[in-house]
Amino acid sequence: MPVKKSPKSKKSTVKSTKKPTKKSTGSVLELKPNTIYQGDCIEIMKSLPKGSVDMIFADPPYNMQLRGDLHRPDNSKVDAVDDHWDQIGSHKDYDGFTREWLSAARDLLSDDGGIWVIGSYHNIFRVGAILQDLGFWILNDVIWRKSNPMPNFRGRRFTNAHETLIWAAKSEKSKYRFNYDAMKTMNDDVQMRSDWTIPICSGAERLKGEDGEKGHTTQKPEALLYRVMMATTQPGDLVLDPFFGTGTTGAVAKKLGRNFIGLEREDSYIKLAKKRIAAAEPIAEDALQGMMPKREEPRVPFGWLIERGLIKPGATLTDPQNRVEAKVAADGSVVTSDGVNQYRGSIHKVGAAVQSAPSCNGWTYWHYQDGKNIFPIDRLRQRVRDEMSARTVIQ
Ligand SMILES: C[S@@+](CC[C@H](N)C(=O)[O-])C[C@H]1O[C@@H](n2cnc3c(N)ncnc32)[C@H](O)[C@@H]1O
């Protein structure tokens, strides 16, 4: 039961509950979108309704197992990740913990849901293997290249300048969401690649604790979550983050009109997250509307172009090189001849036949003349779609 309500229509309040409310039926917890649940994420996930979440973003403990303090050349102490929550134990312990939280997370995902897990070389390979063992279907590993990484102070290894995100669908059969067109548009009309250069979280974005020091050692940059959510969710989706920390996922979800559920054990982080999310400004609903994925665009049959007078019966269409010509009939079929055979049928069938190809996208193969130039007939289909959605998209 994914929550699809527009966040505009529902209050985007943040409730932190010590003990999440129990439903009257059994031990299942009530699912309250835009809520931080405090406690152990495995226990909470096991109690939430199965199949209720569209996407999961998880930034689990890295289990870094640092040995001793790390100092800079000037002897100042490096603010490394030595928090108690990161100390899981041996590899075996870490694998057990990972298997448990990932199983509970998988149960919570809708069948077509996806998961993102971020980690470093300390843990991501173990996480990847367990994801596959549990039946998740890995779609990409994305390299987050830090444009301003921390140097390697001891000079004994390469500068550790990236983290890895694994993006996986719940199963091989999942019809997962990927906003391909939005990603391409965001990237100046070039396909978005799997290496992302984004700075680490710093400056005003970096939250401070009551002592004026870093509020959290591993606060992720909002830009990273922005891209993840823009790529794999739509407004109104429910995103769960089982290791919520300072609530980066919640703040970005609120800005982008998505709903969130945050799970976190520590009081101090929940306090920071609540304040931050309360201050986050949602983007106006009309500004959230982006490119519609091609697959979701309304179907426009070729005949509609003829009915609307965009292509006249008897008009000539050509292939992209202007070598093959076909005439358009009043019923939307096209006819051509290679001197030996005559071909008549749909734009797709005739396009395939003249190329001796198994199939053809007639919308991009056939072109019409406009002034001195020829254009694919897909341009006219887009005009009809724009008229249907009353939106103007510049191609
Ligand atoms: C790597 S940090 C996440 C940071 C977060 N992405 C951010 O941007 O602030 C992991 C967080 O998970 C929390 N955590 C660790 N184990 C947990 C558990 N079993 N249940 C709930 N929270 C847990 C830690 O307290 C920590 O805040």
What does this structure look like?
- The chain is 28% helix and 20% strand.
- It has helices at residues 41-47, 91-108, 124-133, 180-186, 222-232, 248-255, 267-279, 285-288, 302-307, 347-355, 362-365, 378-389, and strands spanning 15-17, 35-38, 53-58, 109-119, 137-146, 162-169, 195-198, 238-241, 259-264, 316-318, 325-328, 334-337, 342-345, 367-370, 373-376.
- The strands form 3 sheets. It has a 9-stranded mixed sheet, sandwiched between helices. Strands 10-11-12-13 form a 4-stranded antiparallel sheet, with helices on one face. It has a two-stranded antiparallel sheet with strand order 14-15.
- Strand 3 (53-58), helix 2 and strand 4 (109-119) form a beta-alpha-beta unit.
- The two termini are 36 Å apart.
- Mean pLDDT is 89; it is low at 1-26.
- S-adenosylmethionine (SAM) binds next to strand 9.
Overview features:
alpha/beta, 28% helix, four-stranded antiparallel β-sheet, binds S-adenosylmethionine, nine-stranded mixed β-sheet, 395 residues, elongated, disordered N terminus, 12 helices
